[in-house]
Amino acid sequence: MLTHFTLQNRNSNITFFSRKEWGIIGICAVLVIILGVAGYANLHPDASLSDQLYKTLGLFTLGFSAPTGNIPWQLNVARWLAPALLSYAAVKTILLMLHGQLVLLRIRRLQDHAVVCGLGEYGWPVVQALAGKGIPTVVIESDTMHSHLGWADNAGVYVLPGNARDVNNLVRVNVTQARYLLAVTENDAANTEMIVQAYQLKQADPESPLLKCVAHVQSHELAAVLYDDAVFSQDSVHFSARIINRQQLAARWLLLHHGPDTELIHDIPGLEEIRVLLLGSHAFVEDLIVRLAKLGHYGTAHPIHITLAGPQAAAQLEVINKRWPVLPDIINIKAKDIALSFLSAQNAQQLINSFKPHLIYLCAADTESTLIGAKALARLTLHCPVIVCQFADDLLTRSIEPAFQSHTRFKFVYPTREIFAVAAIFDATQDQLAIAIHNHYVESQIAAGDTVANNTSLVRWEDLPETLKDANRNQADHLQIKCRVITGSLHYTPEQIEYALCDKKTLERLARMEHERWVAEKRLDGWHYTEGAKNIAARLSPSLVSWEQLPESERQKDRDAVHNIPSLLQWIALQHQSSGSS
């Protein structure tokens, strides 16, 4: 099914014929001219060449005239071929124009489909995932020459050329009857505007089904502001919207599945500090550093130690520190300007020998740099795991990993592929543990006598402010870190955790880890220490101090939270069993 079509406007080129058709039409047109001129030359030998050519061109408009009698065969063929060729072109043009209208009509009648605004770097993986699950998908794309349009044609994806900020295009794709809306252009303002427009359309049609919306916002500050906007913070039976950031999601996924607590699970108990080497200048590096600052608390004597290395590492770190000025107070971080060269790896080897990293992340800016960097590292003497992060999806990217099958220390990961799965984007499957933690909290607090009147957090997950959702996500992610650290295993049971917590030193270690995590999270979110009472609006807290300075009553809260982990895991297991049986 050919599903990509273009509508005639100032900004689009209409292509009605394939290259093969253009070739056939061109050959036939030349043949008509040659035969026509030859025929008229036989019929009127005294006529000039210009007259013969003029009469030949008239054949295309049925302008044939000749005296009765024997007509040269060349002219006879030309006089039938010319109007036939013209008729074919006219009929094909009309059919294709009608086809565009039919496709547009078909789009307007779609229901329970997905609408993706933008087929670029962010939208492309999701469109692939949607098509792979057989979900009818419509893409609104302003670039009619986009390189992925051919794939969209073959995959049965509808593509509507135009500006997604034009609310009329959202109406054309029947967004009020859609299941999903994803705004992933390169413009943050455009992405949020599309969601707001969809919200207004849904408000005018309250009986329509639930539309799950996602807007990609690159700016951390804009995302923080939008967290409090009613469109993104309040769900209804027919509309829900959330903000995502690809690099933040990728950093979260990477640390969950390939963080120090997984890659160094047997080494952490014997380490005074965890040294991480970040190689490359991909923008993702900043989010990975911030994520490590928030969650990189593994109970070691010293904070996590990070070296950022690359061609412009010092300048890159300076920019990061300006955006996150409290980073140096939370982690030990420095930069080293170095070119990771395949031909000259001496500088890189010296850095590795002096820093002695426990874990290396290669986060190059592009596929070519990833290949060069991986090949350069393969030449060095390494004693730690190397995690190669790949973000592109092209032939060169897919060819890198097979070349390293003999290098056991190398592990290739594809964060974008994982985070842009349909369930992860629209159903937030990575939040299941965070949701369970929140639900357990609500249940336990209500049982203790709390109400929504005196505790505004006792609401459904869907109604929870995004900042509190993030806090639950961080708590959920670090809960897994705690369990891995104390069991030395990726797979653990509530009974194992309960047994480990019988050791008072282990309990105290995890309580301290929890406090350090909480302090890092609050400080990175703009909170400050105060000697007075806690002030949420002003983001002030008297608990933003070291573990040693923390009052015993506050320490006990962290111990209680850690001691509650086994019962929380048991509660979650029971919830899964009950939901499975139902």
Layout of helices and strands, plus pairs?
Elements: H1 19-43, H2 49-57, H3 73-108, E1 114-117, H4 123-132, E2 137-141, H5 149-155, E3 158-161, H6 167-172, E4 180-183, H7 188-203, E5 211-216, H8 220-226, H9 230-233, E6 239-244, H10 246-258, H11 260-263, E7 275-279, H12 284-295, E8 305-310, H13 313-323, H14 327-330, E9 332-337, H15 346-355, E10 359-362, H16 367-378, E11 386-389, H17 395-400, E12 410-413, H18 415-419, H19 422-426, H20 432-447, H21 466-487, H22 494-500, H23 504-524, E13 528-529, E14 540-541, H24 552-563, H25 565-581
Parallel strand pairs: 1-2, 1-4, 2-3, 4-5, 5-6, 7-8, 7-10, 8-9, 10-11, 11-12, 13-14
Helix pairs in contact: 1-2, 1-3, 10-12, 12-23, 20-21, 20-25, 21-23, 22-25, 23-24
